[in-house]
Amino acid sequence: MKKIFNIVTLFFITVILMSCAKKQNPILDLNKLSALMDSNPDSVYNTLICFSDKLSNRDYPLYCFMLVQSMDKTYRTIDTDTLINIAIDYYKDNPDSAFLSQVYYYAGRVYEEMQNYPQSINYYLKSIDYIAATTDWYDAFLSCYYLGNIYSRQELFEEALSIQKKAYHFAKLNGDSAVVGQTLYSLSFAYQDLGKNDSALYCLNHIDADSDSCLMASVYNNIANIYYNDSSYDVALKYIHHSIALQNDSEELCYNDVLLGRIYLGKFESDSAIIHFKRSMLTDNLYTNITSCLGLGEAYELKKEYNKAVTYYKEAMAYKDSLEKRERRTEVIRLNKIYQYEQIKEENYALKLSESRRKQMLYSLVSLLFLSIVLFVWIYYRMKLRREAKIKRQMIALNEEKSKCQQLEFEHLKSEKKLLEIREQEAQLRDAFFLRLNSLCFPFLNDSVSDSHRIKISKQNWEDITSNVNSVFNNFTVRLRDMYPLLSEEDVHFCCLLKMRLPLDVLMQIYCIQKQSIYKKKERIKKEKMGIDDNRILDDIICSL
């Protein structure tokens, strides 16, 4: 019996010792992972993301920083600033830390990914300031390079040029020809944004021709585009063919075809332009399709095949509508992500606040055992601090929302401006089409004749003129009669001639009256028939309808 009791006792002691034994956690060698970051970032990311054990207060900020770094290097989406803020809060209290400049750089990358450009610019500038005291030229180049890109997107072109020059300086100090070539390429765009094409060409021509083929293809594309804008079409053709020879991206080849189409259009070689514009439409890129359809419309218009021209112009407008719908959908998705991100932050804050309250309750109970008066004073002081902190948080949140609303309003105005420009281009194309249509349908209105010759317009001619005006300008005569019912048929015909922008001499020959009589006729129609009494002339009123 005693032997059985001893065995049972030994068994329980063994179980207790095993349950109390400390579990051996796998060791996470952060220094080793940091050495592998540049060569194998995917493995580093998988190792970090699979690690679930608790780290020390010293290692956890480094873990957060390296996780953000590996996500950036593996092109993963970063939609929260929680991890990088942990690293910032830790390393900013250690000014001599070698990681601080890199932490600020990746904070800039995180906020750039989240489209919070003011915060991104702030951290890139901090990174540059800290790197300036070291010799880490590559990190300095990266900070300047991405900061320059943000300045360009914000249309701060002078600032973009200045910071890209710094990026070029650091790239030269780094000594990597590929980095220097990429910097010169970005610097050329900064010069182009300021209209300094000669400086842009200088940068592009000084890129090492033995650089990466994709980079050189883009370089030749850019050079060709500059010469195309300067109407140097033969030189542009030479460089665009250099680009095609190096190109292995089908999307970029479509862009090459667009540029070739524009060049041939500039040389009035409409057949060649049509071939390349049609080839460029094999892509799914809506911007390329819009440009290609507009180019095809111009080419067929040059060939006087107006039906095809109108078809492609309509197709371009359809693509524009699709693009606008996609941009609206993207904006909704982006706003939804912002909302989800804010919701997650609020939930995290609520959890932290809940944990804090539990701890405070425990401290309160312990304090109650010693001194109730001290507890009362402490609770009162704590509640006061909470109210002040809550007011402060609300003010910060209100300022952040105000800043976001201003940013959204700016982006909305920018989109509206772009849409207005597209509509103005459409109006110009429509006017040009109308003038050409009139010159083809009524060539006798453009003939150079003596002052004594009268131009006779038959009833059929008047019907054709009215039909053309209504077709191009959305039932112009119908709207004119609705707005000004006092106008007679002859007055409407006269307004149609003004809409055709016929010169005064032609109007005199049509109506067989003097110049002064034409002016009086315009004033009579404007004041008596239309009831308009201001400083505008009738021509401007008709053209504005």
Please give a structural write-up.
The chain has 545 residues and is an all-alpha fold. Among the domains are: 249-370, Serine Threonine Protein Phosphatase 5, Tetratricopeptide repeat, CATH 1.25.40; 383-439; 444-544, no CATH class. Helices cover 78% and strands 0% of the residues. It contains 24 helices and no strands. It has helices at residues 2-20, 30-36, 41-50, 59-73, 82-91, 100-113, 117-131, 137-153, 157-174, 177-193, 197-205, 213-229, 233-246, 250-266, 270-280, 286-302, 306-370, 372-441, 459-472, 476-483, 489-499, 504-511, 515-529, 538-544. Helix 14 (250-266) runs parallel beside helix 16 (286-302) and helix 16 (286-302) packs antiparallel against helix 17 (306-370). It is extended. The termini are far apart. Residues 15-25 have low confidence and may be disordered.
- List the secondary-structure elements in sequence, H or E: HHHHHHHHHHHHHHHHHHHHHHHH
Low-confidence stretches: 15-25
Distance between the termini: 114 Å
What is the architecture of the domain at 249-370 at the second tier of CATH?
A: Alpha Horseshoe
Rg, alpha carbons: 36 Å
Strand content: under 5%
Indicate the structural class. Answer: mainly alpha
Gist?
The protein has 545 residues and is mainly α. It is 78% helix and 0% strand.
Key phrases:
545 residues, mainly alpha, 24 helices
Question: How is the topology of this model organized?
Answer:
Elements: H1 2-20, H2 30-36, H3 41-50, H4 59-73, H5 82-91, H6 100-113, H7 117-131, H8 137-153, H9 157-174, H10 177-193, H11 197-205, H12 213-229, H13 233-246, H14 250-266, H15 270-280, H16 286-302, H17 306-370, H18 372-441, H19 459-472, H20 476-483, H21 489-499, H22 504-511, H23 515-529, H24 538-544
Helix pairs in contact: 3-4, 4-5, 4-6, 5-6, 6-7, 6-8, 7-8, 8-9, 8-10, 9-10, 10-11, 11-12, 12-13, 12-14, 13-14, 14-15, 14-16, 15-16, 16-17, 17-18, 18-19, 19-21, 21-24
